[in-house]
Design brief:
Layout (H helix, E strand, L loop, with lengths): L26 H13 L7 E5 L5 H8 L4 E6 L2 H18 L4 E5 L2 H7 L6 E6 L7 H11 L3 E12 L11 E9 L2 E8 L5
Length: 192
């Protein structure tokens, strides 16, 4: 069972996606990830985008810790329903609608994003079958929607190669937690 680690909704259990089509981020990895993100000072007041959201665990954790807005993007029907349940849970805990769920393919969502929309923190935890060229295309499509000091976190299997970053993004850190690897990137010229 996953839960919200800290913040207003800290300790609240989250609904999980049934079956084996999603890989929820473990509480241990989530705790370490958010400890690092809070050290970068990018969570409180942030506009957050959680792509391939699964259960929405990373996005709702952000909302619990003070993010201003969170957009969860998930195409799978069951996972999208779970995202909505978890969004309702955390929105109730914080007393406002911070988290919105978008049932959409990531590529379609980004194509429809309004010019001038900017996110401060973006999570990408794509399904393992997503190949590196497709991942690179999503990162390229995402780039115009990143605030100047944005942080992009890519979560993959520790056996996956490093993402092919577009020229507009540069990796500034990486960390391995067992079978999970996290890469942290920022817009070129950004300051994390």
């Amino acid at each position: 069972m996953t839960r919200i680690i800290a913040g207003t909704g800290g300790g609240m259990p989250l609904v999980s996606v049934p079956g084996s089509t999603t890989r929820p981020t473990t509480d241990r990895v989530k705790e370490a990830l958010f400890s690092r993100l809070e050290a970068f000072n990018v969570v409180a007041g942030a506009r957050v985008l959680d792509l391939y959201a699964g259960s929405g665990s990373l996005g709702v954790e952000s909302a619990s810790r003070g993010a201003e807005t969170v957009d969860l993007v998930e195409f799978d029907g069951k996972a999208s329903e779970v995202c909505q349940r978890n969004a309702d849970l955390v929105n109730g805990a914080i007393g406002r609608k911070a988290v919105s769920v978008h049932r959409s393919r990531v590529e379609s969502f980004l194509e429809r994003t309004v010019q001038g929309t900017l996110w401060d923190l973006v999570f990408l935890d794509p399904p393992y079958p997503l190949d590196e060229p497709a991942m690179g295309a999503v990162l390229q499509e995402l780039s115009p929607y990143l605030a100047e000091a944005a942080v992009v976190v890519v979560e993959r299997s520790s056996r996956s190669p490093e993402p092919g970053w577009p020229a507009s993004l540069e990796r500034f850190a990486e960390k391995k937690y067992g079978e999970t690897k996290l890469w942290f990137a920022e817009p070129v010229g950004g300051s994390s």
